[in-house]
Design goal:
By secondary structure, the protein is an alpha/beta fold. The protein has three helices and 17 strands. The strands form two sheets. It has a 15-stranded mixed sheet that branches. A hairpin with a 2-residue loop joins strand 13 and strand 14. The relative contact order is 0.08.
């Protein structure tokens, strides 16, 4: 009898232990803990995670974060993700069957918001992670961000932006970004010449200049072309109604001049607006 009772107690204890291992850790709101470890997997995010200003949150290797709809991470302090190439950190939808066996539906783009890093934050260092099925991936208004060996997959709008500038990131292809060189073997930082970062920023400024000039030219050209077109139409009507020869000749000349101006400025406006659109492609 004692043996049966002991066996029953051990079975209950084992069941409870397994259930504890499989239990999720629910998260939401301001983060009170500064470190996350793989032992707490999976972390189920039920509302926005907020890293307050002045705080630093470190996410250890192998951590898995499953996000419900309309949730994400908002960083006004500092976020450090320390995954490894063998054991990356995962940010994904709660419907991602690869990390949630109990999901009853498939994950899709736009399932959750993404990671937002505020301009007044202390920035972020994100190493060896995967980010899937969000709206905007990582959106950083702060240029103090370093990314090493990231994989972005099926994010709805974008994978990665810095200060509203879209970065070229291919789906599920390793991606790195930042002003320091990062050692791919151990994820350690080595000091590099920061001129490369400033050069990178300057290389984008000519495109912005061309974009703004093209937009201004397009708008002004289109407006002048339309105005002269209306005036040419009025001159044409007055030309047809003229009874006096001198008035007839004056309105004819006026019409020809305004029509030529309308065509010229309209063409200039079209070229300007076309150039504006092209700057978003190339």
């Amino acid at each position: 009898m004692k043996t049966d009772r002991f066996a029953l107690i051990m079975l209950i204890a084992l069941t409870a232990f397994v259930a504890t291992l499989q239990a999720e850790t629910k998260l939401g709101g301001e983060l009170s803990q500064s470190n996350f470890h793989q032992a707490g997997n999976p972390y189920l995010v039920e509302e926005d995670l907020i890293i307050p200003q002045g705080e630093e949150v470190v996410v250890g290797e192998g951590c898995v974060f499953l996000f419900k709809a309309f949730t994400g991470i908002r960083v006004t302090g500092k976020l450090v993700v320390e995954g490894t190439s063998q054991n990356p950190v995962i940010f994904t939808s709660m419907y991602d069957k690869e990390f949630n066996d109990e999901s009853k539906q498939l994950a899709n783009p736009f399932d959750w918001n993404g990671i937002f890093i505020a301009q007044n934050s202390d920035g972020a260092i994100l190493r060896n992670f995967q980010l899937r099925y969000s709206v905007y991936g990582v959106k950083s208004q702060n240029e103090e961000i370093i990314i090493q060996n990231a994989r972005f997959r099926q994010n709805g709008q974008l994978h990665f932006t810095v200060d509203e500038k879209i970065q070229y990131v291919q789906d599920d292809i390793p991606f790195s970004y930042g002003s320091r060189e990062l050692n791919s073997e151990n994820g350690s930082e080595s000091t590099s010449d920061k001129k490369s970062a400033s050069t990178k920023g300057k290389s984008r400024s000519p495109r912005r200049t061309v974009r703004m000039v093209s937009l201004g030219t397009g708008v002004v050209g289109a407006a002048l072309g339309a105005t002269l077109g209306v005036m040419a139409s009025q001159s044409y009507q007055q030309w047809g109604e003229a009874q006096d020869v001198s008035v007839y000749n004056q309105k004819q000349s006026e019409f020809n001049g305004r029509l030529a101006g309308s065509i010229a400025f309209g063409t200039l406006g079209l070229l300007g607006l076309s150039g504006f659109g092209i700057t978003f492609v190339f």
